[in-house]
């Protein structure tokens, strides 16, 4: 590499840690579905559970993790809680991840999907 090309300014450790946490939150099939639903409008836990095919308690646990990671926001109205995607960055991040998944033609997609399902079964995420 030519030293005259300029220095590459690496992100700070804090930025890297936050990015790692965001990607960790996206590394779950139900959380991807929950976020996708929230990109299309505000929802309650029960509505999300019905839309993504999971129990309300499971969705609530996923939402707590997503909220701690800064990917979703909650609005309370009396005893009800309504969730939305945190901001436009979440929308772009999920769009890009799904776009990449659609266009990853160079991978043996059958093997990738098989490995993802195997990993989920081993973690008990099915």
What would the keywords be for this entry?
126 residues; Arc Repressor Mutant, subunit A; mainly alpha
Descriptive report:
Residues 11-105 form the HTH arsR-type domain. This is Transcriptional regulator. Keywords: DNA-binding, Transcription, Transcription regulation. GO terms for molecular function: DNA binding; DNA-binding transcription factor activity. It comes from Nocardioides glacieisoli. It is a single chain. The protein is mainly α and 126 residues long. The protein has one domain: Winged helix-like DNA-binding domain superfamily/Winged helix DNA-binding domain (Arc Repressor Mutant, subunit A), CATH 1.10.10.10. The chain contains six helices and two strands; from the N terminus they run ααααββαα. It has helices spanning 13-26, 29-39, 45-52, 56-68, 88-102, 109-123, and strands at 72-77, 80-85. Strands 1-2 form a two-stranded antiparallel ribbon. Helix 2 (29-39) crosses helix 3 (45-52) and helix 3 (45-52) crosses helix 4. The longest helix is centred in the C-terminal third of the chain and has 15 residues, at 88-102. It starts with 12 loop residues before the first helix and ends with a helix. The mean pLDDT is 86.
> What's the CATH first level?
Mainly Alpha
Please estimate the helix content.
55-70%
* Cα-to-Cα separation, first versus last residue: 46 Å
Number of domains: 1
CATH fold annotation = Arc Repressor Mutant, subunit A
| Sheet with the most strands: spatial strand order | 1-2
SS-derived structural category? mainly alpha
Low-confidence stretches: none
> How big a fraction of the residues is strand?
5-15%
Rounded mean pLDDT score:
86
Oligomer: single chain
Tell me the CATH architecture. Answer: Orthogonal Bundle
H/E element sequence: HHHHEEHH
Question: Tally the helices: what do you get?
Answer: 6
What is the fourth-level CATH superfamily? Answer: Winged helix-like DNA-binding domain superfamily/Winged helix DNA-binding domain
Rg to the nearest angstrom?
17 Å
What would you call the shape?
Answer: globular
